[in-house]
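Trying the structure run again after the queue cleared.
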Amino acid sequence: MLRFARIAPLLVLLLAILSCLHVARVHNFVVPAKAGGLGRALLAALTFHLNLLEAWRGYLPGSWDVLWSLSVEEMFYLFFPLVARLFGRGKLFILLLCAFVVLGPFGRRALSYGNPIWQEKSYLGGMDAIALGCLTALLVSRVHFRRAALRTFHWIGVGSLVLILGFASEPFLRRLDRAGLEETILAIGTCLIIIASAQTEWKSPRFLLPLLKLGQYSYEVYLTHMFVVFTLFSLFLDEGKPMGLVPVFFALTVFIAGLVGAVIAHLYSEPMNRYLRGRSRIDRAAMRQSAGN
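Done. C-alpha coordinates:
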Protein backbone atom coordinates (compact mmCIF):
# COMPACT_ATOMS: atom_id res chain seq x y z
CA MET A 1 0.00 0.00 0.00
CA LEU A 2 2.90 2.33 0.72
CA ARG A 3 4.29 1.61 -2.75
CA PHE A 4 0.88 2.18 -4.33
CA ALA A 5 0.55 5.58 -2.68
CA ARG A 6 4.00 6.56 -3.92
CA ILE A 7 3.81 5.16 -7.46
CA ALA A 8 0.21 5.14 -8.70
CA PRO A 9 -0.68 8.88 -8.82
CA LEU A 10 2.17 9.91 -11.12
CA LEU A 11 1.87 6.77 -13.22
CA VAL A 12 -1.83 7.44 -13.87
CA LEU A 13 -1.16 11.10 -14.68
CA LEU A 14 1.67 10.16 -17.06
CA LEU A 15 -0.50 7.63 -18.88
CA ALA A 16 -3.26 10.22 -19.27
CA ILE A 17 -0.80 12.75 -20.76
CA LEU A 18 0.78 10.16 -23.06
CA SER A 19 -2.66 9.08 -24.25
CA CYS A 20 -3.54 12.68 -25.15
CA LEU A 21 -0.25 13.13 -27.01
CA HIS A 22 -0.86 9.89 -28.90
CA VAL A 23 -4.37 10.93 -29.92
CA ALA A 24 -2.99 14.32 -31.04
CA ARG A 25 -0.36 12.46 -33.13
CA VAL A 26 2.52 14.35 -31.55
CA HIS A 27 5.90 13.22 -32.89
CA ASN A 28 7.81 10.84 -30.58
CA PHE A 29 4.66 10.00 -28.62
CA VAL A 30 2.61 7.86 -31.03
CA VAL A 31 2.40 4.17 -30.16
CA PRO A 32 2.96 2.29 -33.45
CA ALA A 33 0.29 -0.03 -34.81
CA LYS A 34 2.70 -2.98 -34.79
CA ALA A 35 2.87 -2.64 -30.99
CA GLY A 36 -0.91 -2.85 -30.78
CA GLY A 37 -1.72 0.85 -30.56
CA LEU A 38 -2.71 2.96 -27.58
CA GLY A 39 -5.10 0.50 -25.97
CA ARG A 40 -2.57 -2.33 -25.94
CA ALA A 41 0.13 -0.06 -24.48
CA LEU A 42 -2.21 1.15 -21.70
CA LEU A 43 -3.19 -2.42 -20.85
CA ALA A 44 0.47 -3.45 -20.67
CA ALA A 45 1.40 -0.47 -18.51
CA LEU A 46 -1.48 -0.99 -16.07
CA THR A 47 -0.99 -4.76 -15.79
CA PHE A 48 2.80 -4.54 -15.54
CA HIS A 49 3.88 -6.41 -18.64
CA LEU A 50 5.04 -3.55 -20.86
CA ASN A 51 8.48 -5.15 -20.90
CA LEU A 52 6.89 -8.30 -22.31
CA LEU A 53 4.97 -6.30 -24.91
CA GLU A 54 8.19 -4.69 -26.11
CA ALA A 55 9.92 -8.07 -26.31
CA TRP A 56 7.04 -9.32 -28.50
CA ARG A 57 6.35 -6.23 -30.61
CA GLY A 58 9.45 -4.01 -30.44
CA TYR A 59 10.28 -0.76 -28.66
CA LEU A 60 7.60 1.75 -27.76
CA PRO A 61 8.22 5.53 -27.86
CA GLY A 62 10.71 6.70 -25.26
CA SER A 63 8.21 8.07 -22.73
CA TRP A 64 6.37 4.73 -22.82
CA ASP A 65 9.54 2.66 -22.88
CA VAL A 66 10.64 3.85 -19.42
CA LEU A 67 7.66 2.00 -17.94
CA TRP A 68 9.32 -1.37 -18.57
CA SER A 69 11.18 -1.15 -15.26
CA LEU A 70 7.95 -0.50 -13.38
CA SER A 71 6.67 -3.79 -14.78
CA VAL A 72 9.54 -5.58 -13.04
CA GLU A 73 9.29 -3.58 -9.83
CA GLU A 74 5.53 -3.90 -9.50
CA MET A 75 5.70 -7.67 -9.84
CA PHE A 76 8.10 -7.60 -6.91
CA TYR A 77 5.77 -5.36 -4.89
CA LEU A 78 2.82 -7.64 -5.64
CA PHE A 79 4.44 -10.97 -4.87
CA PHE A 80 7.06 -10.11 -2.23
CA PRO A 81 4.49 -9.76 0.61
CA LEU A 82 3.04 -13.17 -0.28
CA VAL A 83 6.48 -14.80 -0.37
CA ALA A 84 7.49 -13.11 2.89
CA ARG A 85 4.25 -14.28 4.51
CA LEU A 86 4.83 -17.82 3.26
CA PHE A 87 8.52 -18.15 4.16
CA GLY A 88 8.95 -15.64 6.97
CA ARG A 89 12.48 -14.29 7.43
CA GLY A 90 14.16 -17.65 7.97
CA LYS A 91 16.57 -19.76 5.99
CA LEU A 92 14.11 -20.68 3.23
CA PHE A 93 13.41 -17.02 2.55
CA ILE A 94 17.12 -16.19 2.38
CA LEU A 95 17.71 -19.22 0.16
CA LEU A 96 15.01 -18.01 -2.23
CA LEU A 97 16.61 -14.56 -2.44
CA CYS A 98 20.01 -16.15 -3.10
CA ALA A 99 18.44 -18.23 -5.87
CA PHE A 100 17.23 -15.02 -7.57
CA VAL A 101 20.74 -13.58 -7.31
CA VAL A 102 22.18 -16.65 -9.03
CA LEU A 103 19.46 -16.80 -11.69
CA GLY A 104 19.60 -13.10 -12.60
CA PRO A 105 22.55 -13.41 -15.04
CA PHE A 106 20.91 -16.42 -16.67
CA GLY A 107 17.74 -14.38 -17.11
CA ARG A 108 19.73 -11.73 -18.97
CA ARG A 109 21.62 -14.13 -21.20
CA ALA A 110 20.81 -17.85 -21.42
CA LEU A 111 17.07 -17.40 -20.90
CA SER A 112 16.68 -14.38 -23.19
CA TYR A 113 16.76 -16.69 -26.25
CA GLY A 114 18.64 -14.15 -28.35
CA ASN A 115 15.98 -11.44 -27.89
CA PRO A 116 17.95 -8.23 -27.14
CA ILE A 117 14.95 -6.48 -25.57
CA TRP A 118 14.11 -9.39 -23.26
CA GLN A 119 17.81 -9.69 -22.46
CA GLU A 120 17.66 -6.19 -21.02
CA LYS A 121 14.15 -6.10 -19.61
CA SER A 122 13.09 -9.55 -18.41
CA TYR A 123 11.53 -10.07 -15.00
CA LEU A 124 14.14 -12.59 -13.89
CA GLY A 125 16.97 -10.43 -15.23
CA GLY A 126 15.97 -7.64 -12.86
CA MET A 127 15.40 -9.73 -9.78
CA ASP A 128 19.02 -10.31 -8.74
CA ALA A 129 19.49 -6.62 -7.90
CA ILE A 130 16.17 -6.53 -6.02
CA ALA A 131 17.04 -9.72 -4.12
CA LEU A 132 20.45 -8.30 -3.23
CA GLY A 133 18.71 -5.22 -1.83
CA CYS A 134 16.49 -7.43 0.34
CA LEU A 135 19.49 -9.44 1.55
CA THR A 136 21.31 -6.21 2.36
CA ALA A 137 18.39 -5.01 4.50
CA LEU A 138 18.30 -8.31 6.38
CA LEU A 139 22.07 -8.31 6.88
CA VAL A 140 22.23 -4.74 8.19
CA SER A 141 19.42 -5.44 10.64
CA ARG A 142 21.16 -8.55 12.05
CA VAL A 143 24.92 -7.97 11.88
CA HIS A 144 26.92 -4.97 13.04
CA PHE A 145 30.25 -4.74 11.23
CA ARG A 146 33.49 -3.29 12.55
CA ARG A 147 34.56 0.07 11.21
CA ALA A 148 37.51 -1.43 9.33
CA ALA A 149 35.16 -3.82 7.53
CA LEU A 150 32.81 -0.97 6.68
CA ARG A 151 35.66 1.04 5.18
CA THR A 152 36.58 -1.98 3.08
CA PHE A 153 32.97 -2.40 1.93
CA HIS A 154 32.83 1.28 1.02
CA TRP A 155 35.92 1.27 -1.18
CA ILE A 156 35.12 -2.06 -2.82
CA GLY A 157 31.64 -0.74 -3.57
CA VAL A 158 32.92 2.55 -4.99
CA GLY A 159 35.53 0.69 -7.02
CA SER A 160 32.90 -1.65 -8.43
CA LEU A 161 30.70 1.25 -9.53
CA VAL A 162 33.58 3.12 -11.13
CA LEU A 163 34.74 -0.04 -12.90
CA ILE A 164 31.36 -1.00 -14.33
CA LEU A 165 30.08 2.50 -15.14
CA GLY A 166 33.35 4.00 -16.29
CA PHE A 167 35.01 1.21 -18.25
CA ALA A 168 32.12 -0.76 -19.78
CA SER A 169 33.77 -0.75 -23.22
CA GLU A 170 36.94 -2.49 -22.04
CA PRO A 171 37.38 -6.03 -23.46
CA PHE A 172 37.49 -7.82 -20.08
CA LEU A 173 34.25 -6.13 -19.00
CA ARG A 174 32.60 -7.12 -22.26
CA ARG A 175 33.22 -10.71 -21.29
CA LEU A 176 31.45 -10.06 -18.00
CA ASP A 177 28.59 -8.48 -19.91
CA ARG A 178 28.30 -11.49 -22.20
CA ALA A 179 27.98 -13.63 -19.08
CA GLY A 180 25.29 -11.31 -17.70
CA LEU A 181 27.42 -10.40 -14.68
CA GLU A 182 27.92 -6.64 -15.11
CA GLU A 183 24.55 -5.75 -13.58
CA THR A 184 25.07 -8.17 -10.69
CA ILE A 185 28.48 -6.68 -9.86
CA LEU A 186 26.98 -3.19 -10.07
CA ALA A 187 24.23 -4.21 -7.64
CA ILE A 188 26.71 -5.83 -5.22
CA GLY A 189 28.84 -2.68 -5.25
CA THR A 190 25.79 -0.55 -4.53
CA CYS A 191 24.76 -2.82 -1.65
CA LEU A 192 28.25 -2.62 -0.11
CA ILE A 193 28.02 1.18 -0.15
CA ILE A 194 24.56 0.98 1.44
CA ILE A 195 25.88 -1.24 4.24
CA ALA A 196 28.77 1.12 4.94
CA SER A 197 26.57 4.23 4.80
CA ALA A 198 23.83 2.76 7.00
CA GLN A 199 26.05 1.48 9.78
CA THR A 200 28.37 4.49 9.89
CA GLU A 201 25.32 6.80 9.65
CA TRP A 202 27.16 8.76 6.98
CA LYS A 203 25.75 12.17 6.15
CA SER A 204 26.43 13.74 2.78
CA PRO A 205 28.24 17.11 2.72
CA ARG A 206 26.29 20.18 1.66
CA PHE A 207 27.83 20.38 -1.81
CA LEU A 208 26.23 17.00 -2.63
CA LEU A 209 22.75 18.30 -1.80
CA PRO A 210 21.72 18.61 -5.49
CA LEU A 211 22.69 14.97 -6.04
CA LEU A 212 20.81 13.97 -2.89
CA LYS A 213 17.70 15.79 -4.12
CA LEU A 214 18.03 14.16 -7.52
CA GLY A 215 17.89 10.80 -5.75
CA GLN A 216 14.90 11.79 -3.64
CA TYR A 217 13.00 12.83 -6.77
CA SER A 218 14.35 9.97 -8.88
CA TYR A 219 10.89 8.49 -9.56
CA GLU A 220 9.52 11.77 -10.87
CA VAL A 221 12.69 12.39 -12.87
CA TYR A 222 12.65 8.90 -14.33
CA LEU A 223 9.04 8.99 -15.52
CA THR A 224 9.27 12.47 -17.05
CA HIS A 225 12.87 12.90 -18.24
CA MET A 226 12.12 11.81 -21.82
CA PHE A 227 10.05 14.96 -22.32
CA VAL A 228 13.19 16.96 -21.56
CA VAL A 229 15.36 14.68 -23.70
CA PHE A 230 13.09 15.03 -26.74
CA THR A 231 12.89 18.82 -26.37
CA LEU A 232 16.63 19.37 -26.06
CA PHE A 233 17.44 16.82 -28.74
CA SER A 234 15.17 18.69 -31.16
CA LEU A 235 16.99 21.91 -30.24
CA PHE A 236 20.32 20.12 -30.81
CA LEU A 237 19.20 19.08 -34.30
CA ASP A 238 17.86 22.56 -35.10
CA GLU A 239 21.26 24.02 -34.18
CA GLY A 240 22.97 21.75 -36.72
CA LYS A 241 24.26 19.07 -34.33
CA PRO A 242 27.03 21.11 -32.67
CA MET A 243 29.08 18.20 -31.29
CA GLY A 244 31.24 20.49 -29.20
CA LEU A 245 28.16 21.42 -27.18
CA VAL A 246 27.18 17.83 -26.36
CA PRO A 247 28.47 18.11 -22.74
CA VAL A 248 26.45 21.30 -22.34
CA PHE A 249 23.29 19.66 -23.65
CA PHE A 250 23.91 16.68 -21.37
CA ALA A 251 24.32 18.90 -18.30
CA LEU A 252 21.21 20.89 -19.26
CA THR A 253 19.22 17.69 -19.64
CA VAL A 254 20.18 16.48 -16.16
CA PHE A 255 19.54 19.90 -14.59
CA ILE A 256 16.17 20.54 -16.25
CA ALA A 257 14.97 16.96 -15.74
CA GLY A 258 15.87 17.24 -12.06
CA LEU A 259 14.08 20.57 -11.78
CA VAL A 260 10.96 19.24 -13.49
CA GLY A 261 11.00 16.19 -11.22
CA ALA A 262 11.26 18.38 -8.13
CA VAL A 263 8.35 20.59 -9.22
CA ILE A 264 6.15 17.57 -9.98
CA ALA A 265 7.06 15.99 -6.63
CA HIS A 266 6.20 19.13 -4.64
CA LEU A 267 3.04 20.08 -6.51
CA TYR A 268 1.51 16.68 -7.27
CA SER A 269 3.04 13.33 -6.40
CA GLU A 270 3.99 13.99 -2.78
CA PRO A 271 0.65 15.68 -1.89
CA MET A 272 -1.13 12.70 -3.49
CA ASN A 273 1.15 10.33 -1.62
CA ARG A 274 0.27 11.94 1.71
CA TYR A 275 -3.44 12.03 0.83
CA LEU A 276 -3.58 8.32 -0.03
CA ARG A 277 -1.61 7.40 3.08
CA GLY A 278 -4.01 9.40 5.22
CA ARG A 279 -7.10 7.94 3.55
CA SER A 280 -5.98 4.36 4.13
CA ARG A 281 -4.36 5.04 7.52
CA ILE A 282 -1.18 3.39 6.25
CA ASP A 283 1.16 5.55 8.32
CA ARG A 284 -0.59 4.79 11.59
CA ALA A 285 -0.70 1.07 10.84
CA ALA A 286 3.00 1.13 10.00
CA MET A 287 3.81 2.93 13.24
CA ARG A 288 1.78 0.42 15.28
CA GLN A 289 3.59 -2.45 13.59
CA SER A 290 6.97 -0.81 14.23
CA ALA A 291 6.10 -0.29 17.89
CA GLY A 292 4.98 -3.92 18.16
CA ASN A 293 8.27 -5.17 16.71
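The chain has a mean pLDDT of 91. Worth checking whether this holds up in the mutant runs.
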